[in-house]
Structures are given as C-alpha cells and as structure tokens.
C-alpha cells in the first residue's frame, strides 16, 4: 500500500487523474497557489525551479485555492490560461481545492498534520505555502508564503542526493 503522500490522488486542471504514487522516487514540491495574490509572481520562480531541476527528479504540483481573500476566483480553464499566458507554467497543476477546513483535500489534511506551521499551527495561513516531500513520500518541511522558490534549491538538492 502506498504511504506518505503517495496514498493521495487528485485531478489535473484539465480533469485527468493525478496519482501522487506515480512520482515515487522523485522530490515533490507541493504549493497552494492563487492568480490574484501578492505572491502570484512566485509562479515565475516555481517555473524556473521546474526548468532547472525537473530533469533531475523535482516534480512541482500547484494546487489552486480560493480560500484566502477569494484570490483564485476562476474555474480550471481560466486558471490554466492565466498561468500559461502570464508565467509560462509547464509544471503540474491540480484542480482547484480547499486546503483548510472540513472540505480540505485529503492531501492537505495529511500535509498540515505532518508539518506544522509557525507556532505549531496546522492550518495553511495564506497562498503559496510550500511543502517539500522526500523521494520516499515523507514530508520533509513546510515553508511560509514569503519563502521564495529559489530559496528552496539547497534543500531540494539535498533531498535529491538522499
């Protein structure tokens, strides 16, 4: 049986199944995203990480979420068009999900239990909270929205070398 994050699945923006177990042996970066947020320019940094480290085994998955200031109001096709047009996003994007509350996606229920936020809280505080996942599916760490994607390179490379 799949363990860690590999037990979860979702759908892509275009409705195709996305099984996390398909990424066993790779380092995952999971990020809740939004198109109308002050941190939205981080899409650019995420795309650069994808281009630089994707061939070495990094998989980035964005999870659009509208729970913070209603900053992701569009449907899946609008989100995809925005990401492609404005940031050239070619990394994986999930369907829109909730990351907090009773309707939170099961993956996010797991992530927030495994890696607490500031002061030991579990709830996601804002868009672009990042979770770095080891090649075996275990959560390595959680990063605040203010942490820039490029600031994760050393941790990503360390996990790739494990």
TrEMBL record:
One of its GO terms (molecular function) is peroxidase activity. CDD domains: GSH_Peroxidase. The keyword Signal does not apply. Keywords: Oxidoreductase, Peroxidase. InterPro entries: Glutathione_peroxidase (IPR000889), GPX_AS (IPR029759), GPX_CS (IPR029760), Thioredoxin-like_sf (IPR036249). It holds the Pfam family GSHPx. Belongs to the glutathione peroxidase family. This is Glutathione peroxidase. It comes from Limnobacter humi. The lineage of its organism: Bacteria, Pseudomonadati, Pseudomonadota, Betaproteobacteria, Burkholderiales.
């Amino acid at each position: 049986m799949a363990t860690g994050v590999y037990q979860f699945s979702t759908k892509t923006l275009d409705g195709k199944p996305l099984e996390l177990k398909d990424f066993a042996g790779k380092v995952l970066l999971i990020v809740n995203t939004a198109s109308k947020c002050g941190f939205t320019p981080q899409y650019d940094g995420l795309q650069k990480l994808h281009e630089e480290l994707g061939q070495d085994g990094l998989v980035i998955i964005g999870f659009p979420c509208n729970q913070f200031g209603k900053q992701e109001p569009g449907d899946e096709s609008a989100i995809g068009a925005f990401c492609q047009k404005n940031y050239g996003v070619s990394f994986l994007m999930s369907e829109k999900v909730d990351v907090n509350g009773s309707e939170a996606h099961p993956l996010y229920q797991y992530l927030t239990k495994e890696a607490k936020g500031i002061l030991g809280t579990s709830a996601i505080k804002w868009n672009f909270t990042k979770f770095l996942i080891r090649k075996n599916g275990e959560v390595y760490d959680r990063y605040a929205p203010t942490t820039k994607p490029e600031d994760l390179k050393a941790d990503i490379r360390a996990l790739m070398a494990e």
